[in-house]
Specification:
Elements (H helix, E strand, L loop, with lengths): L19 E2 L2 E2 L26 E5 L8 E3 L17 E6 L2 E11 L14 E2 L8 H13 L4 H7 L17 E5 L1 H5 L9 H12 L4 E2 H6 L4 H9 L3 E5 H4 L15 H12 L6 E6 L5 H14 L3 E5 L6 H12 L3 E4 L5 H12 L5 E4 L11 E7 L16 H12 L3 E5 L4 H8 L4 E5 L10 E6 L11 H12 L3 E5 L8 E3 L17 E4 L2 E4 L6 E2 L14 E3 L3 H11 L5 E4 L7 H12 L5 E4 L12 E6 L13 H13 L10 E6 L5 H7 L3 H15 L6 E9 L2 H15 L7 E13 L2 E10 L2 H17 L7 E6 L6
Parallel strand pairs: 11-16, 11-17, 12-14, 12-15, 13-14, 15-16, 18-28, 19-26, 19-27, 25-26, 27-28
Antiparallel strand pairs: 1-2, 3-4, 3-6, 5-6, 5-7, 8-9, 8-10, 20-24, 21-22, 22-23, 29-31, 29-32, 30-31
Helix pairs in contact: 1-12, 4-6, 8-9, 17-19, 20-21
Amino acid sequence: MSAFIVYPACAATLGLTPETRGGRRKRWRSVPEPAKQARGDSTPGEPLVTRIIKVAVPGPFRTPLDYLPPQAEPSADVPVEPGSRVSVPLGRRRLVGVVVGAEDHSSLDAHRLRRVQKVLDSAPILDTDILELAHWASEYYHHPLGEVLARCLPPRHRRPDAGTPRTPRVWQLTAAGLSTDLATLARTPAQARAVETLRAATAPQRDEDLRAVGIRSEIIRKLEQAGLIVAMDAMVASALEPPVSDDRPRLNVHQAAAADAIVAAMDSFVVSLLDGITGSGKTEVYLHAMTSAMAAGRQVLLLVPEIGLTPQAEQRLHHRFGSAVATLHSGMSDLLRLRAWERARRGGARILIGTRSAIFTPLPDLGLIVVDEEHDESFKQQDGLRYSARDLALVRARNRGIPVVLGSATPSLETLHNAGAGRYRHLLLPERAGGASRPTMGLVDLRRHPAPEGFAAPLQTAMNEALTAGNQVLVFLNRRGFAPVLRCSDCGWMADCHRCDARMTVHSRPAGLRCHHCGARRSLPPECPQCGAPEPMPIGQGTQRSEHVLGRHFPGTPVIRIDRDSTASQPALQAALDRIGRGDPCILVGTQMLAKGHHFPAVTLVAVLDADSGLFSADFRSSERLAQQILQVAGRAGRAERPGRVLIQTHEPNHPLWETLLRQDYAAFAAAALDERRQTGLPPFSHLALLRAEAPDRATVWAFLERTAACLDGEQPQVAVLGPVAALRERLAGRYRAQLLLQSPTRPPLHALLRNRLAEVEALPESRRVRWSLDVDPIDLY
């Protein structure tokens, strides 16, 4: 393994660790775990086993487990290589594990070891690149290696009983088929027609393509036997197809400079921050760099934060690069995910578009990684292996010696800090592409202009003007449902979730109360359950209520709502985006789904309804999130030749943050925010880990965390152990939650503490009565 010396965007890499010596990392070596392997399949008296297979299996195992080779294989010569999947017994279960090595001896007696049941791959399915990345992630996030490697496999490859689906094939002419005289096939007109069809095709043809034009399987078989055609793996053949379009817009001077800088570093590890305002043409810079990488025979990985953005990216890339593009995300069926993963692994997909999990996909010719909207918190996994895909992209690029591009109109403060320190190149796109102007921004003072139904009079006037002019309006409200509170006006009762410390949200379609935290549902009470007063009132504004109000105020205008309720499926979202894309006057109402990378050329007015909610928060990242959210959604206005306008409703028009955002000066905001973080010792000027625990009983949680704090405190004087404290929403889904925060000015002491003491924490008797997790570099402290 090579040394890992990288500077991640949110302090999520270790750099040189105590395990490195002189810039070289020691080879990873497993330690067997005897307690987990009590039963053996070997019998006493067997010859001493001289080769042991090290298998990482999914589960709470900090080290790989030792297994004997399969019965059919000679023990002196294990044919299984690291990266191969094997089916292994564990207790009464049969699991799929990944081979990570082999040794001559085990610390266990041979008769206590069990055998590998079956080797599932004839050759390693995970290459060295992915194995190194998995080992690094396991060590950095202090997560079991088997669990990390399971993330690297598509769901069907994690099941021991899942069969391998038939690989799609395509047919193309051999040299003999290309040169043969069709007259020689005069006696077999069906064969002649098949050859003629393949000659006329611009790409290899699938079985179903040939059947669709009347060419039967028997004809295909005879042509193959005659040596005139040959079958190819469709996953590989797609990489040979020519691009669909070479229609490239002319880059402006800033785009050209950025693209040239990225291309010039194509053979080395360089991190480029592409910092471009919304509408500045970052995507075209990506495409230029991708074209260069593909021309050099390289593959490209494009990471996007949300599933909803993949169809848009896929459509644009398919237009430019044809069928060499594949998409991978959790919203696909298991079979489609497997096929896309295999296409990428075999080199057939030259460009892979994916959400965060795509970072673990094998790409043998990987030459460029692009992380679009790098600031987006969706790149951080919030359960299980709590990894940052953006930061793992940096690690993977460093291991392979290839460039990585981080793109955003509102870069994270950690990324800007690294750019300012000279670790990243800072490429600027300060102007909108195509000569479009930036939108004007203004405030609507709700103290002077009340908005009893969510829309103040000045905003309604501006909306009417935009619609009358034939344009579209986007209303941004990051709260789904009809209303956030159901309240009795007589006694003050409010509908609380019985399982959480949270109010239940009123929904109109279907009507009822829902908890947005645990998913609990109740019917709407006809009267107050506390005092009996009739019909408790919905208080506040959600996207459903906004949709209802706007339907009354603008009866002749379509209102299209986009949130997780209305567009839960990909087809529903695409249908809504298609309606908007037609350009007819309409009103878009939605949550942050609308603020992420979508292109709405007919939108000329953006209305932000509830911006004040981000001004006052216990989270030190709240101002950064608010600034990013406002400027991202503002960027949806005036994206084409139509000038745009943004109106923000607020009760706090004198708040200093608004002054900076109205100038659309994100750089000034970021500089001030980084100065505050420096003074207070918050990330990126310190490094955090959060240990969370939950249980049905509050006392159990606190007993565990107090014992854990005592276990962790004192070993590393530089590491502050803060807490335990209750979570901001202490009860969730019937379980009480609390946490410990570990803070260190540098990374090594924090990780040394976790490496040295986590085993003791796991051994605490109290740990068996709680559900606990560790989050390194948390983005959500509450």
